[in-house]
């Protein structure tokens, strides 16, 4: 049995009922609004943050206090020399389990391949560490379709005889899966 939608119309509004789904206009008559994947990603991730961490970083769940998670305002960074402006996607302050100390979890969604992305992540890390003076756990979700190659997970500064810096960040490369069917509700909706 198909349902009938009925309601009492307000003045000047006509009641409409359908015994089936309303007809869908042809594609060229539809106004398609593009989905803001970045905003959707941030909203869903902040809503399901504990589940996200539990699914992808179960080791972290052993040392963080889930009830202490506080989402911080986005941080905006400007590269004065290049004139580029960057802002963090998601930043959470979390307490170590059973301790009075805190750390930050910084999550970036990278929807396009970008040269020197590791350098950008290091700059985020350094500025966040300098501002908050907390350890920072950096996470990147690579979600772009092309190229389907492993994305970098580190930024290095080294000389032939001396390694100055080896900065690492946790990465999730969704771009490597040939299909985009995911079991995580956050990622399956966003990608």
Low-confidence stretches: 1-18, 28-32
Helix content: 10-25%
Q: Please, what is the average pLDDT?
A: 78
Secondary-structure-derived class: alpha/beta
Number of domains: 1
Q: Strand order across the biggest sheet?
A: 1-4-5-6-9
Q: Would you give an account of this structure?
A:
The protein has helices spanning about 35-45, 50-55, 60, 115-130, 185-190; strands at about 65-70, 75-80, 85, 90-95, 100-110, 135-140, 155-160, 160-170, 170-175. The strands form three sheets. It has a five-stranded mixed sheet with strand order 1-4-5-6-9, sandwiched between helices. A two-stranded antiparallel sheet has the order 2-3. The chain contains five helices and nine strands; from the N terminus they run H-H-H-E-E-E-E-E-H-E-E-E-E-H. Mean pLDDT is about 80; it is low at about 1-20 and about 30. The protein has one domain (about 35-190). A hairpin with a 2-residue loop joins strand 7 and strand 8. With about 190 residues, the chain is of the alpha/beta class. The longest helix is centred in the middle third of the chain and has 16 residues, at about 115-130.
């Amino acid at each position: 049995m198909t349902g009938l939608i009925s309601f009492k119309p307000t003045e000047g509004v006509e009641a409409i009922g359908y015994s089936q789904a309303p007809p869908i206009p042809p594609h060229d008559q539809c106004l398609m609004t593009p989905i803001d994947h970045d905003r959707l990603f941030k909203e869903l991730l902040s809503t399901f943050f504990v589940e996200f961490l539990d699914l992808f970083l179960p080791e972290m769940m052993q040392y963080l206090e889930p009830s202490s998670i506080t989402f911080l305002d986005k941080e905006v960074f400007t590269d004065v020399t290049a004139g580029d402006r960057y802002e963090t996607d998601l930043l959470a302050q979390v307490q170590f389990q059973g301790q009075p100390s805190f750390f930050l979890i910084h999550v970036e969604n990278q929807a396009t391949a970008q040269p020197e992305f590791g350098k950008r992540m290091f700059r985020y890390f350094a500025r966040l560490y300098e501002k908050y003076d907390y350890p920072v756990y950096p996470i990147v979700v690579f979600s772009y379709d092309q190229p389907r190659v492993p994305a970098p997970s580190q930024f290095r500064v080294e000389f032939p005889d001396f390694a100055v810096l080896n900065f690492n960040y946790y990465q999730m490369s969704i771009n490597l899966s040939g299909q985009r069917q995911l079991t995580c509700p956050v990622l399956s909706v966003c990608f």
